[in-house]
Amino acid sequence: METNDESITTTTQNKDIVIYGLSTEGYEIAKRILQHQSRVVIIDENSRLGILLTPKIVKEYPNIAFLMEEELLLNLEPFDKSISGAPIIFFVPRIRKTNYDVKNDIIPKFKEIISNLKKNTSIVFNIPLGIGGNTEIITLIEHLSGFTVGTDIFYYYNPLDKIESAETIIGSYQQISDTYFSSTINLIYKIDKQKLKILSISSAELLYTINIVNRYSNMTSINEITKINRIKEIRSEISQNNIEPIYFDEIVNGLFDLRILSLSLTNSSALGYIINGTIRSIEGFAKSLVEEIRIQLKLREIKASRTKVTILWTIDNNEMRGDKTIMLESLKLKLRDYIAEVDTQTIENYLPNTVTNIIIACSSEDYKKIISKIDKNHYHNSKIIVVSANTFFNTVEI
Fold first, then answer.
1. Which of 197, 237, 300, 388 is most buried by a 10 A CB count?
2. Same structural domain for residues 186 and 240?
3. DSSP 225-282
4. Is 211 part of any domain?
């Protein structure tokens, strides 16, 4: 798998690697590739147009949100032309469905790629799949394209994790060496100095499952245990014993992956019980948060009718996964069952009103920023209560 910068530059001349999906993750892959070659095409899955990216363009538009504002002013090309000429295609679309509807969002998008495939193309599937999920995708490629995966078409599984890791695992279906892909992928991950492992598809699926279940079942255990006793002093003592608070933003990160895993397992299996219990805990966090707001109102003898709740949650709407947006809407609906005035706002634009203001900070960064903003701007005419949407529901009144 070792290579050098010079060999990749020579090999990739006049070949445009394609990123399918106008997502934040897809744009980051494009930026990495553009450090070693002059052009990459990223495909908007909604308009079905390819956007030609260059090092100059990504420097001018450092993130996908800026690029999307100017999309019509950029060099565009037909979808089928981009796919049919690509030596490597990364599949990184934005997925906005949940549970059983997920496949109905993924498969139609992927079929568009298959119908335009050429021989010797390498496909990198970056969306997390459940155990055995790649078998269905590989069968679909062979059925619709007529090519044999592993000899005519090269297939890789590289689920993009929400949590940064020192090691990157890629599943490979190939029985022969794909030197072009190896050279390219080495350079992409060498930028972050990550350790790169190429394993079988089945091994990659299982290792990713272990990582996800370990991480989020541990979070679930902490969340569920801290629910047992809501006394402020008890929570304070627990937090002082090296138990870091886990924010809603971090908890929701793995929800998509857990749901995908759940769909690939039988509910009666022990692993299925663990994963489904973790999902229920994550989804139930919003209910616990609403209950905490009710407790705060009761303790402070504040009327819900004279209270405004503002949710501060900095969300990247262009992420591959859409769980945060879905959970935000769920939280708003639950709060409105008790409090009439519920709003979402950016920290930069936040202004309290003349009644009681409860602010829910859904991430550590949101909490730090709003506390800093309030400290700098003393709103003497307003009562402001900041609730941290984390394991301990830390609350301060300003």
1. 388
2. no
3. HHHS---HHHHHHHHTTT----BHHHHHTTHHHHHHHHHTS-TTSHHHHHHHHHHHHH
4. no
Which domain, by its residues, includes 383?
A: 229-397
Longest dimension (CA), the chain: 72
Dist. CA 284–CA 224, nearest whole Å: 10
Looking at the chain, how many residues does it have?
A: 398
Model pTM score: 0.89
- Within this chain, do residues 282 and 356 fall inside the same structural domain, yes or no? yes
Q: What was the pLDDT predicted at 380?
A: 58
Q: Which amino acid is at 278?
A: T
Between CA 41 and CA 53 the distance in angstroms is: 6
Asked whether residue 70 is assigned to any structural domain, the reply reads yes
CATH of the domain at 248: 3.40.1010.20
Co-location of 269 and 309 in the same domain: yes
| Residue 308 CB partners (closer than 8 Å, separation 6+) | 339, 341, 342, 343, 352, 353, 355, 356, 357, 358
The secondary structure element, H or E, covering residue 181 is helix 179-190
Distance CA(221)–CA(235), nearest Å, equals: 15
Nearest-angstrom CA–CA distance, 124 and 27: 15
Tell me the pLDDT tens digit for each residue of 217-275. Answer: 888 888 888 888 767 777 678 777 778 889 999 999 989 999 999 999 877 789 999 99
pLDDT tens, 132-147? 999 999 999 999 999 9
Residues 34 and 80 in one domain: yes
Strands 40-44 and 49-53: antiparallel
Token output for 13: 């001349």
